[in-house]
Design a protein that fits this description.
Pfam families (chains A, B): LacI, Peripla_BP_3
Largest sheet of chain A: 6 strands, parallel
Oligomer: homodimer
Structural class of chain A: alpha/beta
InterPro entries (chains A, B): HTH_LacI (IPR000843), LacI/GalR-like_sensor (IPR046335), Lambda_DNA-bd_dom_sf (IPR010982), Peripla_BP_I (IPR028082)
Domain HTH lacI-type (chains A, B): 4-58
Protein name (chains A, B): LacI family purine nucleotide synthesis repressor
Keywords (chains A, B): DNA-binding, Transcription, Transcription regulation
DNA sequence: CTTTTTGATAAAAACGTTTTTATTGACTCT
DNA sequence: AGAGTCAATAAAAACGTTTTTATCAAAAAG
């Protein structure tokens, strides 16, 4: 029992192929009886159009592709969740391609499996690939990089601004000696957050001190060790506050402080970035800066669809972070001595 | 500048279409020079085959589809992560379709966008749809239901066994009066866990008491209220241990116990199911039963690919849970009086 | 020296659609 | 009454591939 095609329906209904196609696609040229008859036959045979044939001919799929190297972690599922909701709303399907093989990515994009693409992937797609996509008039929105390159869209978080705002918040609590725990220096977001931190210090004319910039690599353990070794070496110069490159790092920092007998936030304020799921449950609950992930997903789909409909040119957008104040930060108090 | 097709490559290289196709697909009938020449031309023109044309003709896509109504939460991303890794390993691509529209799901499945499908969706696909898929020889693996129906695969967690093992563990700690906090009685997993719990009680000849079965609806608040009202009504008959339908519920239970001055685990043991991300960070860290999500994903892909290659018939598999002992459970102690 | 075989390439058919164009027969004009 | 419109349907072309079949010259076989 082979797959039922439009041909089978035509034969069974005693009409031509084109008539069946018209009936199925609701083109209004057929007599109501013929149409009804054909639909009934199609139903009876359980006919389902072959999407590849359909797509090959019509060139449009009503499908958007999301290309990513990973879906691990809350960032991705929040993103996918919001994108798929918005797709539903706009009458598109969402198709997530998880692969690390650039070849696969490019051939799916250029091979027209989807009407437009959202791209998030750390490695791989370079200027040349983007040029190829532009040449083919592929509509794309990037989530992980700024594109000066016109024609393509991008929606990224303003990490610089987040770093800046976080630092300003700590300053507003009365803290003057604010340390920064750096993430990975090759990552764009990481660097931007630090830049924002430095800018805020400069703006408030607080000294930028070399030893106040620690290296935590976005990991709990590394940060724990880095902070501990700082406290060992400079017991007399403990910062008022630590701004960690992300929440994981903030957690390591808090552990290290606790192990040296400092109370957070009474003795030292600590904050991170990302507002990961466990942040509100941590002890103390973490003050952090949250990225509006759902908004990013929603805007990406919106923008892409408008690009596809030629209502909008690709453009770059930046999203502001959202300060979330919880228990790990506190106005500056006179610190009790180290136990 | 329209899309480059195989025709353009043929014209440019001065050969026929079929020759180009042979060159590109490495069919070994061409002279090395011709082949090299064609490949060079294709490269120069940035030719990328149209996947729809290709697929339409050859009928195979080397793509697997994962159909789901949601990707929210850790379960899904762990699942997708493991599936995509296994796909990579086996030379397939993974394609996640997120939609609540059954129509979309069915037309993508039957419309041959993918070589095989993994299905997880709570509502929608019924016996009739499955019959249609079988008729079309679609290869499918279900993750959310047992399929007695031969021909299709399914890989589910053995929730009955998990409930049984969890209860046995609590009994092994010396607990005799074990309460169960039920989830949602329409959900398969929820019911199965409770059945396992009851079976263990029966096996050890412990009395099954009506009041010991509370209703928590898998929510923190509902459970909190349910447990609290139990403690208010039966202050003299506090269980030795609570087995909550999931970790969220366990958290609510612990809060309620604390509010009545009971210490967990010294006074009462509490455990849940799922091992959610915050379980190890909770206070106390939760004892729970973990489902092997990554294993489920891996097995699903494996099974599906073997079905596609006709090496295996669809079959049902069950995965055992994994007991994770943390701080919320303890051997039975003589309980101090209520404060 | 003709007939076969072989090797390399080209032509044509096929996949399942949609879309464009053609073909009817019935109706409406003047 | 003949030409022109119209409604309904059919036929054919097209989408971009792969695959099957055909072509044709050169080499091998007799």
């Amino acid at each position: 029992m082979a797959k039922i095609t439009i041909k089978d329906v035509a034969r069974e209904a005693g009409v031509s192929i084109s008539t069946v196609s018209n009936a199925l696609n609701d083109v209004d040229v057929l007599s109501p009886e013929t149409k009804a008859h054909i639909l009934k036959v199609a139903q009876r045979l359980n006919y389902v159009p072959n999407l590849n044939g359909k797509l090959l001919k019509s060139g449009t799929t009503k499908m958007l592709g999301f290309f990513t190297t990973s879906v691990s972690g809350p960032y991705f599922y929040k993103l996918v969740e919001s994108m798929s909701r918005q797709c539903d709303r706009l009458g598109y399907g969402l198709n997530v391609f998880v692969t690390k093989d650039k070849q696969v990515i490019m051939s799916n994009i250029l091979g027209r499996r989807v009407d437009g693409v959202i791209i998030y992937e750390e490695l791989g797609i370079d200027e040349q690939d983007i040029a190829a996509m532009k040449k083919d008039k592929i509509k794309a929105v990037f989530l992980d990089r700024v594109l000066e390159d016109e024609g393509m869209g991008s929606i990224i978080f303003d990490s610089y601004e987040s770093g800046y705002e976080a630092t300003k918040y700590l300053i507003s609590l009365g803290h003057k000696r604010i340390a920064y725990i750096s993430g990975v220096d090759t990552m764009f977001d990481s660097v931007q957050r630090k830049e924002g931190y430095l800018a805020a210090l400069r703006e408030y004319q607080l000294p930028v001190e070399e030893e106040f910039i620690l290296q935590g690599y976005f990991e709990e353990d590394s940060t724990y060790n880095a902070v501990k070794s700082y406290l060992r070496l400079h017991p007399a110069r403990v910062p008022d506050a630590f701004l960690a490159g992300n929440d994981i790092s903030a957690m390591g920092c808090i552990q290290a402080l606790k192990s040296y007998g400092y109370e957070v936030p009474q003795d030292v304020s600590v904050m991170g970035f990302d507002d990961i799921d466990i942040a509100p449950y941590y002890s103390p609950p973490l003050t952090t800066v949250r990225n509006q992930i759902a908004r990013q997903g929603m805007l990406a789909i919106d923008h892409l669809v408008r690009m596809i409909q030629d209502k909008e040119q690709g453009a770059a957008q930046k999203l502001q972070g959202e300060l979330v104040v919880r228990g790990s930060s506190h106005v500056k108090l006179e610190r009790k001595d180290r136990r």
